[in-house]
Amino acid sequence: MAKTNPGRFFEDYRVGDVIEHAVPRTVSGGERALYHALYPARHALYSSDEFARRCGLPASPLDDLAAFHVVFGKTVPDVSLNALANLGYAEGRWLKPVWPGDTLRSTSEVIGLKQNSNGKSGVVWVRTRGENQRGEVVMDYVRWVMVRKHDMDAPAPETLIPELKPALEASDLVVPEGLDFSDYDFTLAGEPHRWGDYEVGELIDHVDGVTVEEAEHMMATRLWQNTAKVHFDVTAREDGRRLIYGGHVISMARALSFNGLANAQMIVGLNGGAHANPCYGGDTIRAWSEVLDKAETPAPGVGAIRLRLVATKGGEPFTRKGDDGKYLPHVMLDLDYWALIPV
Amino acid sequence: MAKTNPGRFFEDYRVGDVIEHAVPRTVSGGERALYHALYPARHALYSSDEFARRCGLPASPLDDLAAFHVVFGKTVPDVSLNALANLGYAEGRWLKPVWPGDTLRSTSEVIGLKQNSNGKSGVVWVRTRGENQRGEVVMDYVRWVMVRKHDMDAPAPETLIPELKPALEASDLVVPEGLDFSDYDFTLAGEPHRWGDYEVGELIDHVDGVTVEEAEHMMATRLWQNTAKVHFDVTAREDGRRLIYGGHVISMARALSFNGLANAQMIVGLNGGAHANPCYGGDTIRAWSEVLDKAETPAPGVGAIRLRLVATKGGEPFTRKGDDGKYLPHVMLDLDYWALIPV
Amino acid sequence: MAKTNPGRFFEDYRVGDVIEHAVPRTVSGGERALYHALYPARHALYSSDEFARRCGLPASPLDDLAAFHVVFGKTVPDVSLNALANLGYAEGRWLKPVWPGDTLRSTSEVIGLKQNSNGKSGVVWVRTRGENQRGEVVMDYVRWVMVRKHDMDAPAPETLIPELKPALEASDLVVPEGLDFSDYDFTLAGEPHRWGDYEVGELIDHVDGVTVEEAEHMMATRLWQNTAKVHFDVTAREDGRRLIYGGHVISMARALSFNGLANAQMIVGLNGGAHANPCYGGDTIRAWSEVLDKAETPAPGVGAIRLRLVATKGGEPFTRKGDDGKYLPHVMLDLDYWALIPV
Known about the structure:
3 copies of one chain form a homotrimer. In chain A, strands 1, 2, 3, 4, 5, 6, 7, 8, 9, 10, 11 and 12 form a 12-stranded antiparallel sheet that branches. The first copy, chain A, starts with 17 loop residues before the first strand and ends with a strand. Helices cover 19% and strands 30% of the residues of chain A. The first copy, chain A, has helices at 29-38, 44-47, 49-54, 64-79, 186-189, 214-223, 246-256, 258-261; strands spanning 18-20, 25-26, 83-94, 103-115, 121-131, 137-148, 203-205, 210-211, 266-274, 284-296, 302-312, 331-342. In chain A, helix 1 (29-38) runs antiparallel to helix 6 (214-223). Chain A is of the alpha+beta class. Chain A has 2 domains: 1-27 and 62-164, Thiol Ester Dehydrase, Chain A; 167-343, Hotdog Thioesterase (Thiol Ester Dehydrase, Chain A, Roll), CATH 3.10.129. The first copy, chain A, has 8 helices and 12 strands. The mean pLDDT of chain A is 96. Chains A, B, C: GO terms for molecular function: lyase activity.
């Protein structure tokens, strides 16, 4: 057993450690096709090379969330194999589009540690960077997880809680080079609603639902080379159920949000996110959004919109937390992100 | 909710309207691989670039039915979101092969309207055209659907029932440029039977069966960006079952027909089709064919064969309708098409 | 029914027959993406073009087992449609990598025959070769199957049992042209263990498990154009269960073996293999390995390691056969192969 990876435990992390994650990955048209088979993805910029060219890009990039999943997947064996909970995300930025043929790799820097008062686990903050084969950072984000200790006698590290922005400023966002929405085709995009048509505070029920299957979430999770046992092995948890990778719920909800947000084309910022309740095979995922903020960008015709995306199974749309401030049981995801949209 | 697409209702259609459907789609080797993973597709011309070259084409095109599904899928949000029934197809023609890298878009012209006598719904006929990025029409077909009215007080439109050919003539068929079966390799194609070996009236039981799974039909239907709720959401119908996209049954039956019709390589005409009974996850699809007609084409070595393709779940092969002229309950599909086959 | 393929029966084989199998297949990035979606495949050389280049190859080839499945799948309609059992493999060699864009075809030569004493069936040995579009043999292997007789009165052929090596010698192995592990990146590969770190007799429990779904194994098996009814049709067997293609278990176990054997990058030899017990949807596959042998190769930095790979469902790791010499009921696969690993 000495040769297999036991994962890292809380006491194995030191602030400042940089972990180079294994198994780089070259993506192709195959990943794009699979992404569209696994999610009802319809944002035109990721569906059509011609549409992407009309928006100033050389071709249709890999879906923004697919890029996130690839970068994230590589971190799992080093960061979350012994995680008790995935606590949050912050300061996520998409810095360069990922093109078919690109090879992605990930590194994570430990930027915070805090042992829990029970002495049996602690919280680890990492800033993860995804790089392409030219050494360009294509995205980075912070996430924090609660990790078990293995050696309960290991001393508690000095507590360091990193300062993280509650949300990215519009000026933090990076618009892909060349992006230009001044000749945007709203007909082909599928909806007429532009930046100016959305108001802060507006709520959108995305109407459609998808009942998820075990084969689908496992195929998705494997495609991103995410190895966490709980997604694949019915014997890994006491209840005999496979827990669906939280990223599957993110992608499903984002794809469903096309209906009402068809022009929120590219995700460029991840302000925060909570996997509020687990998702299992057989659940029917629905989604609603709230407009949290709007901003201008320097790119021609390109505005930014900050959205809350909530994925639910059952329950009334637009309900999120109870009177006690806790997530209601039907809420699976509460994501806060910035997207680019034609003005 | 104002921003989501409610779909069109019967009173929203006018004869002569041209609807430009959204979300163009670039296809790649990923779509081909997925098509072969979802269906037991073995027609050699769509499986091997080398085989396609020996048949005079520059490479293996996207499967003819995959091209159909992409073109069709784009029409769903505008044509069949509020459809009560998909009533028929006519005058379908494949005009140009679709190659990896091509981007497809669809437009539909309303060519007929007839309000039902109950005043609550009506029949809409559309002629849909799929175009590639060079503006070439790659296929066109007529389909008609029964659509709900939303405003029951909307006046009935003038009835116009388009004149449609009961079947395409051989002279209507377009043989792909360069196609030449004079050096056709029957061994690599998988069967020795050529055009001359089939007789009008001949019946072929394709023997094999495939039990279909929810994950598969949803992946297929999403890949074509078909958004009809009933295929994905167990809460969309009273019986809690997901209705399988009729096109999934078409592709499954066509793939099964390889066994007996391995040389009926390319579909070039769709004369008509009925989705006789619904298909659900767990059903085992089988298929049989009847030779309806044969014709010559001007292309070297290329003949045309008109086939009835029937997909069933259970029941005796070659049974189709009862004494009352209605489809028997085990019949799911009755399709009438022209294919190209070596003489 | 005369036009469909009934498959060959025992009396239809003659020693020396060469069967050219139908339906050549062009592979692309789509097959790679699907392979990674269907199996938790993480060997870096098949995941990253950049990693493959650092190992002296022009790009990442199609996964070695995917190449095997494509070549194998073509033989099914001619060799195993009426097979009662897949008895064994020997002398399998990977001779050339398969690249995206390559087109594969297969031929099999009958090299042995032995009628069973009951007169109702017999064993057929074939040597199968997979060729690319340049006529280069990319792999060859021997397999033997028990096939039903159709005409019980057909005379028994002369018995010929081919002499087969119990295992390939290291000198039989073909290292891909250009392969060079002297600048191998162990960090990106995922584990530090090199050739010198493994000892003959060493046992490795690969820890992880995957619960398999019907949709997945059917998609995989179709992708390889394997048409055996028992994998797809619940009515094909009396118990109403779909038997999972043995190759699905091989690929799943090999992918799981990454955890402990991440550097056993390329499979180059197949010494033998037994599908000890059937696998069904819902089974949870685990794997363990035993180091059987080690050898040097002439390629820079490249060693060879001979491994036993055992796939199980339940049961204790490292158990394989009972006191009676028979496989224990939880053992599904016992495979003996050579892989290339950095020294």
